[in-house]
Write a structure and sequence with these properties.
The protein is mainly alpha-helical. The protein has a domain of about 90 residues: Helix Hairpins, CATH 1.10.287. It is built from five helices and two strands. This is Large ribosomal subunit protein uL29c.
Length: about 170
């Protein structure tokens, strides 16, 4: 419910115009609109407590990091290649104007970044400096064998199954 209060012209006094300061707040006192909640339960119009949702997100992130740290470096490298292929497929779907989840871009990029972070943490533990790490990274990128991403493999398998079903 909204309440509206209007100040009478005789009770309103305007302070002198302030000079430019670090705190540019409005000095308008004429109309004040406030939301009033008359129920005893928490008001639907109140600001939601986002703390609990951020705690859940943090827990999921921690679980994901534990999962990534449990993998070997070779497994991480393979998954990075797969995720980058998936990102490429998403970009293709976007350019062709197919339906896709735009949130997948961010999710995949963040996962790749977490994997690269874990990979770099392991390099630091092994005593590999930044310059050598970049050199090894360039060599690794050159050695990558291009292969279709898992989603494309799955799509091809589904198409082959449909064709086999139609021919039978």
């Amino acid at each position: 419910m909204l309440s509206l209060s209007i100040a009478s012209p005789s009770s309103v006094t305007f302070p002198p115009k302030p000079t430019i300061s670090a705190n540019p707040k409005s000095s308008f006192n004429g109309i004040r609109i406030a939301q009033v909640c008359h129920t005893l339960s928490p008001c639907a119009c109140s600001v939601r407590n986002t703390r609990s949702s951020s705690v859940v997100m943090m827990a999921k992130r921690e679980e994901e990091l534990k999962e990534i740290r449990a993998k070997t470096t070779e497994q991480i490298n393979e998954e990075i290649v797969d995720l980058k292929g998936e990102l490429f497929m998403l970009r293709l779907q976007k350019s062709v104007r197919n339906e896709f989840k735009s949130s997948e871009f961010r999710r995949m990029r963040k996962r790749v970044a977490r994997m690269l972070t874990v990979k770099r943490e392991r390099e630091i533990e092994d005593g590999i400096n930044k310059r050598l790490s970049r050199k090894l990274d360039r060599q690794w990128k050159k050695s990558i064998v291009v292969r279709p991403p898992p989603s494309l493999k799955k799509l091809r398998e589904e198409e082959a199954a449909e064709e086999a079903k139609e021919s039978a």
